[in-house]
């Protein structure tokens, strides 16, 4: 027995290598096996898995959508130039940056064949075109084509089906364009960049760019669109873009990408992107909450272990190392599991989505993996920090004074750490401090409100419970006694249920909204160039054939020349510009129409629709905002040789995603009624009636038909795509929410374990106790459901109006679903945990409590 | 020479009604190898005295010296090291770590102290307490008596100079309690440990060399025995 002084003792202990890492490893091994860390590990793994699969999936989806959308441009970026050609240096630079380029020149001209003339859209393209998407050609007009390799050869041309109809062409015929003659070698059945401009109604004549000069069609003053197409990987493109953009002439040159908003996809895409971001954020926050609840519980369970270790000679640093290593090992293992699950999950989802879409989604970089690992580490370590600090502060005296816990650690520290971590996660995840701040502040406010409301509810429920039978009375008494703990629990129940309902409702709203835009009978054909005397017979034909068609709108081409007497910019050419004041205009000819009634699918934003006999013009809202047009402004238009001025009567919202003729300017009928006009409409022809198409339009030979089925199909593809993604996100969020519920129920049952055992020992039947607990959870769950529903309606209102630009809506069925789901799930969880407890012998239970 | 020396030791606690003295100033000394019982009714201050003597808590006034080391001069860390080196514990509620097996619970103090043959020692001790076949069981798979025997094995593993026992049979039925008691005394004799035991079991107290009787925080009999 050593009799050394304490200094010697300390030295001896210091020299010996303590085996803290073995103890740590042992604790972890056993606790994992005994399922005590399951919730904690599952929460961390879920956070990692959710972040990884969501970000990989949404990134791949994003890239996939971009690729698909790029096909609408036949490129990733398009430089559109009026007039002059661009400096050759720009193309050299593109090449140096690994950005592929191709030229596309389009203009209207007359084509001549078989003794007949037709207005055509000549399209001369250089090698490489299309940089994105494919050209499809066929051997016969109006049939499905096949992907074409290359471009028309020297002296050859590919032309659209309608021109075959108009000029009575056959393959091998000669077509005169300008001073050149081309042999028609194929039917051009699909161009990726055909676009949505239904006013570009003349059929395309595709020739090689090298043949263009020989036609001698481009003369000074010709209206020609010079387009330069660019494509490359995002990083190269961005470098090129950064170099190029400052050099562009803002008036004559325009830089376009797929997100520029004139694609009907962009709105759907943007919404989907926001939804994914939001839902993923919610998922991460939920998973983090589960980690927090589980970490708290983990620390509490280990209070005794720490007290015993300290009593038995464990130094603070040793104990600290034991539990830190324990936590690190647990976190790392959970992260690995989460990564594996995430990789598996996103691979199968991507496989499934690719299968559904019929093409592969491109791969991503390492970004999402790093993000997922960082999320797992942050979640586990930051949320465990306070419980761990508290755990390490447990005094050894607890071995004798069993009620002692850690002291001297401010509670607010916990809130600051947790809040800070959630905020940090939001910023990392969304990449936007503003969005995070808004969500965070909103969330904080909602939490405080929820807390207040849940206390109120609990107080009120006591009165109700007092009248009821014994299980109910016990349940209510329990609720009341633990009002403070319960209101915290209810808060997390409510938050979990609310987020769950929110994601469910939002998904429903988004899908409905998209479906609403593209109903099964969405118009799939436009008919243009209908002569005015044929408008009525055509309307009669639509009626007779029972085709769902839009109104036949008259079209008169014209230009906007002045606003309130100030000339608009496109009325003067670049050379003529001087310092005098000009306003921004359209830069091009407009298709003007007149209507007595507000067009379908349009809504008034400001002002009133034309009164009987009123003269005025209705302006589309985005244009009004861009150019700065207000109600009462006087707009001057030039139609043919006539110039006239009208006041703006109203501003109209137009849904550009609908497949129907849409107009920037709609006049009251009395103004341009007598101008020479052609008519346009869109209609739906069911697939099985496609063969009747010629028959139906035989009496209208001048009218041109434009098939937008391809475009529709592409939009539907994207939407089904996004719907899948949204559903996937929802499932993950629901998983995270369920985990929070399980963690919370377990934690709260542990808190009342002692009481249960005492009641049990005193002879309370297990059926009575189980019922009492179950009732308590039914009430908690139902109240949480009600609160969650209210909170969900408020949030969804904010989201719909502020984030998604949708009309707000009330979700009545959620008012039933919310409380039911809450009561059902929470009670079921409570019951199952309680049932397991009740199956054990009372003696056994008492022993466990010690 | 005294192994444990307490001089004018008192303990006050702060309550809402002001300072409350739960242990009046008392002095005592315990020699190496002595077996001492601290008895008294509930609330008499037995456990408080035990916590002070074991260095789990510090006295409000007075000094405690263990093996020539003044506890007041040590901080929490140094007291932990001292406990690890010289002191073993047995508690009424066993206080085994639930997620460690019987063997690992016994090994724990030795491992914290950095002992290399912790497992060998632990196995031997478990054999001695008759649980050689229970090494891989978790505490909740053992009966109360078995758990307390594991705790006894744990208490002896570091071959401590002093063993503090807080109501070691308080949670056990009398038959089991008697067995545990016998085991405790047997091991104590074998290792020549100084044993300080809190109990309100008079029979158990009677088996000790000396009885310290506490009542309302005061030591009733002189401590020089």
UniProtKB/TrEMBL annotation, chain A:
GO cellular component: plasma membrane
Topology term for the membrane: Multi-pass membrane protein
Domain ABC3 transporter permease C-terminal residues, every copy: 278-396, 728-841
Keyword annotations of the record: Cell membrane, Membrane, Transmembrane, Transmembrane helix
UniProt keyword Nucleus, yes or no: no
Places the protein is found: Cell membrane
Organism domain of life: Bacteria
InterPro entries registered for this protein in UniProt: ABC3_permease_C, Membrane_comp_ABC_pdt
Main localisation: membrane
Membrane-crossing segments per the record: 37-57, 275-295, 325-349, 369-389, 409-429, 435-458, 490-508, 722-747, 768-792, 812-838
PANTHER family: INNER MEMBRANE PROTEIN (PTHR30287:SF1), MEMBRANE COMPONENT OF PREDICTED ABC SUPERFAMILY METABOLITE UPTAKE TRANSPORTER (PTHR30287)
Stated name of the protein: ABC transporter permease
UniProtKB/TrEMBL annotation, chain B:
Record-linked Gene3D superfamilies: P-loop containing nucleotide triphosphate hydrolases
Pfam families in the cross-refs: ABC_tran
Keyword Transport appears in the UniProt entry: yes
InterPro entries: AAA+_ATPase, ABC_transporter-like_ATP-bd, ABC_transporter-like_CS, MacB-like_ATP-bd, P-loop_NTPase
Gene Ontology MF annotations: ATP binding; ATP hydrolysis activity; transmembrane transporter activity
Originating species: Aliidiomarina iranensis
UniProt keyword Nucleotide-binding, yes or no: yes
Lineage of the organism: Bacteria, Pseudomonadati, Pseudomonadota, Gammaproteobacteria, Alteromonadales
Family classification: Belongs to the ABC transporter superfamily. Macrolide exporter (TC 3.A.1.122) family.
GO cellular component annotations of the record: transmembrane transporter complex
Protein name: ABC transporter ATP-binding protein
Keywords from the UniProt entry: ATP-binding, Nucleotide-binding, Transport
ABC transporter domain sequence ranges: 4-225
């Amino acid at each position: 027995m050593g009799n050394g002084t304490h200094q010697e003792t300390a030295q001896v202990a210091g020299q010996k290598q303590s085996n803290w890492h073995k103890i740590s490893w042992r604790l972890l091994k056993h606790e994992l096996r005994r399922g005590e860390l399951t919730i904690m590990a599952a929460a961390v793994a879920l956070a990692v898995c959710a972040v990884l699969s969501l970000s990989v999936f949404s990134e791949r989806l994003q890239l996939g959508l971009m690729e698909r959308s790029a096909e609408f441009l036949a490129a990733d970026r398009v430089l559109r130039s009026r007039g002059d050609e661009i400096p050759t240096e720009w193309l050299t630079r593109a090449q140096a940056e690994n950005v592929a380029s191709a030229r596309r020149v389009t203009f209207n001209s007359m084509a001549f064949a078989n003794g007949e003339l037709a207005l055509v859209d000549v399209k001369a393209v250089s090698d490489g075109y299309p940089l994105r998407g494919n050209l499809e050609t066929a051997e016969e007009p109006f049939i499905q084509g096949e992907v074409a390799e290359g471009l028309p050869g020297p002296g050859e041309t590919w032309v659209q089906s309608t021109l075959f109809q108009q000029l009575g062409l056959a393959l091998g015929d000669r077509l005169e364009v300008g001073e050149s003659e081309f042999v028609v070698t194929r039917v051009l059945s699909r161009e990726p960049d055909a676009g949505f401009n239904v006013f570009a109604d003349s059929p395309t004549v595709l020739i090689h760019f090298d043949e263009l000069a020989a036609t001698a069609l481009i003369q000074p003053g010709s209206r020609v669109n010079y387009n330069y197409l660019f494509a490359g990987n995002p990083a190269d493109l961005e470098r090129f873009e950064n170099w190029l953009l400052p050099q562009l002439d803002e008036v004559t040159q325009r830089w376009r990408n797929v997100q520029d908003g004139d694609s009907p996809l962009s709105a759907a895409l943007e919404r989907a992107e926001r939804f994914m971001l939001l839902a993923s954020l919610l998922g991460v926050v939920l998973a983090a909450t589960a980690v927090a609840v589980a970490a708290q519980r983990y620390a509490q369970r280990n209070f005794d272990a720490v007290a015993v270790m300290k009593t038995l000679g464990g130094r603070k640093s040793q104990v600290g190392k034991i539990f830190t290593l324990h936590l690190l090992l647990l976190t790392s293992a959970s992260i690995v599991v989460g990564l594996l699950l995430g990789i598996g999950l996103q691979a199968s989802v991507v496989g499934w989505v690719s299968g559904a879409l019929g093409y592969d989604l491109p791969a991503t970089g390492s970004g999402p993996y790093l993000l997922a690992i960082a999320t797992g580490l942050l979640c586990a370590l930051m949320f465990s920090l306070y419980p761990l600090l508290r755990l390490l502060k447990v005094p050894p005296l607890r071995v004798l004074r069993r009620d002692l816990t850690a002291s001297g650690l401010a509670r607010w520290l916990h809130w600051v750490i947790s809040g800070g971590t959630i905020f940090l996660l939001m910023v990392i995840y969304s990449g936007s401090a503003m969005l995070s701040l808004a969500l965070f502040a909103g969330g904080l406010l909602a939490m405080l409100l929820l807390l207040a409301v849940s206390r109120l509810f609990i107080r009120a429920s006591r009165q109700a419970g007092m009248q009821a039978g014994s299980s109910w009375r016990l349940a209510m008494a329990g609720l009341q006694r633990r009002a403070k703990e319960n209101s915290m629990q209810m808060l997390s129940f409510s938050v979990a249920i609310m987020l769950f309902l929110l994601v469910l409702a939002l998904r429903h709203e988004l899908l409905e909204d998209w479906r609403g835009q593209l109903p099964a009978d969405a118009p799939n054909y436009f008919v243009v160039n209908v002569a005015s005397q044929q408008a009525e017979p055509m309307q009669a034909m639509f009626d007779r054939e029972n085709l769902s068609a839009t109104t036949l709108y008259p079209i008169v081409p014209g230009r906007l020349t002045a606003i309130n007497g100030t000339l608009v910019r496109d009325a003067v050419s670049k050379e003529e510009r001087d310092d005098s004041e000009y306003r921004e205009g359209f830069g091009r000819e407009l298709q003007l129409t007149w209507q007595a009634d507000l067009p379908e699918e349009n809504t008034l934003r400001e002002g009133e629709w034309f009164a009987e006999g009123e003269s005025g013009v209705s302006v589309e809202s985005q244009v009004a905002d861009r150019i700065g047009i207000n109600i009462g402004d006087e707009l001057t238009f030039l139609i043919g040789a006539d110039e006239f001025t009208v006041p703006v009567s109203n501003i109209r919202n137009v849904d550009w995603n609908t497949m129907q003729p849409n107009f920037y300017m709609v006049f009251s009928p009395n103004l341009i009624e007598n101008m020479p006009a052609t008519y346009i409409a869109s209609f739906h022809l069911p697939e099985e009636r496609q063969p009747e198409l010629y028959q139906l339009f035989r009496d209208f030979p001048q009218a041109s038909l434009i098939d937008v089925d391809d475009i529709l199909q592409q939009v539907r593809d994207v939407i089904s795509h996004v719907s899948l993604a949204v559903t996937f996100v929802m499932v993950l969020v629901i998983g995270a929410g369920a985990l929070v519920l399980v963690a919370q129920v377990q934690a709260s049952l542990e808190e009342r374990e002692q009481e249960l055992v005492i009641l049990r020992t005193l002879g309370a039947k297990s059926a009575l106790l189980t019922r009492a607990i179950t009732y308590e959870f039914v009430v908690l769950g139902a109240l949480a459901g009600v609160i969650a529903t209210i909170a969900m309606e408020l949030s969804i209102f904010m989201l719909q109006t502020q984030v998604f630009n949708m009309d707000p809506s009330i979700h009545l069925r959620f008012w039933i679903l919310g409380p039911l789901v809450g009561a059902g799930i929470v009670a079921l969880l409570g019951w199952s945990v309680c049932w397991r407890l009740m199956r054990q012998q009372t003696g056994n239970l008492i022993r466990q409590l010690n | 020479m005294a192994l444990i020396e307490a001089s004018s030791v008192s303990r006050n606690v702060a309550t809402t009604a002001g300072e409350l003295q739960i242990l009046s100033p008392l002095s005592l000394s315990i020699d190496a190898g002595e077996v001492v019982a601290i008895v008294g009714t509930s609330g008499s201050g037995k456990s408080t005295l035990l916590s002070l003597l074991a260095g789990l808590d510090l006295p409000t006034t007075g000094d405690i010296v263990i093996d020539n080391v003044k506890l007041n001069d040590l901080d929490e860390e140094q007291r932990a090291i001292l406990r690890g080196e010289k002191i073993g514990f047995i508690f009424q509620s066993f206080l085994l770590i639930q997620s460690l097996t019987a063997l690992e619970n016994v090994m724990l103090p030795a491992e914290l102290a950095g002992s290399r043959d912790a497992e060998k020692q632990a196995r031997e001790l478990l054999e001695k307490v008759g649980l050689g076949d229970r090494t891989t069981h978790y505490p909740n798979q053992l009966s109360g008596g078995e758990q307390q025997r594991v705790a006894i094995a744990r208490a002896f593993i570091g071959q401590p100079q002093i063993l503090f026992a807080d109501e070691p049979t308080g949670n056990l039925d009398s038959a089991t309690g008697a067995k545990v008691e016998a085991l405790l005394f047997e091991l104590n004799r074998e290792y020549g440990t100084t044993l300080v035991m809190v109990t309100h079991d008079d029979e158990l107290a009677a088996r000790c060399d000396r009885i310290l009787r506490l009542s309302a925080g005061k030591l009733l009999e002189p401590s020089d025995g």
